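Input chain follows. Return structure tokens only.
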Amino acid sequence: MQRRLVMASLTLVVIALAVFTVPVGISLAELLRGNLLEIVLREARTIAFLQADGGSEAALRSLRGEFEVQSHGKVELVDERRRPALGRPVDEPDAPALTGALRGQESFSWQDTSSLGTPALVVTVPARTGDGRVVGAVRLSYPTSELESQIRTIWIFRLGAGLVTLAITAGLAVIMARSLTRPLRSLQQAATRFGQGDLTVRADEIGPEETRKVARAINIGAHRIDGLVAAQRAFVADVSHELRSPLTALRLSLDNVRDGVEGQDSAPALDLAITEVIRLSRLVNDLLSLARAQANTVQREPLVLDDIVITRVRAWTAAASDRGIELRCVVDPSAVHWSAVLTPGHVEQILDNLVTNALDAAPNGTAVTVSLTRDRDALLVSVVDQGPGLDDEQKAKAFDRFWRGHPGGTGLGLSIVRQLVDDNQGTATLLTAPGGGLEVRLRFPIHHSSGRRDRAED
């Protein structure tokens, strides 16, 4: 918008300059040409009058010499029979202008090339006696180099003035455009951050009254939405937190009861109850994790992903071995030392959820692979299992809350992953792994910090 405002101002100024400057320049040029034509005609008529009046040859020669010295032009005279007068040859005595002058017609022409060897104004007038009889003709050639120089100076001056005007207008237009678009930029930044999930952002109430009213309305709406969402998150977090203690106590009580009824008919029912309590505890823990993920109050910072990936794989290696699953870690050299702007702790939580899901889905004797690669300006984190995988319909629903791909899950693991990935400006995609199984691929934009690129590319 700022560019359009500047261009609109410059366009208006260019039109104004074209409308007022060009016609004035043309008028000045025509005025100078008209003045010169009038002067040369007056000189030619004076010489023609002396020639027709029978003035002395000495006076004519004196007048001719004075004119030629002052103007650097040329004076040519012929009698009624086209013979040169004053003893000087005449160029092209049969020229149409001389013929017309001998018939009583005055004429002039602006010539680019003349007998002077330069552009000139050529004026031809008849020499008439008192009774109107034509007894000869006078042709004056006046060089126009000085006139054209003056006209060029006028146009250069006006062009320079126009450019200076445009420069001043551009500077003022930029200042005005920035002052006009500053409130809009503030609104755009606030709306962008608001759309990214930052409900605490507020727009600056600056600029014209209309803009201030829009900013005020956005701030009021943001405040109300922030309050509602914060209350909802607080409720989920509080409820989840409060449920953890009684659920833990209930599980311990059921475990104690189960130990006392070993071999009795009620044992299967107690086992089922304990299983449901465990599942409910996992659900409460996932709800609490989701509520914390949605809060997103920690500032993001550049983090090196290869260190995080290697650390989390080491942490889960023992648990994978207990289940008879091999946990592999593959870090491509092109991804080493590269960082992404992330919230501390989020990538660890994402990997924990993905590895947990992969271990639950992978059969005994198979492998789960966690890999890190680089794709141009992004880092790719992939978790691949060799389980049954998901079809296209299941992939479309997998990130929905409480959707479960296998029994026993809470249906919140991938929802938490999606929430955390979105908060860190990344993307999460579900793909079918080569040979079967599921691949969860995460993509995070690279943070180009000083020095890391050189080390990574060496």
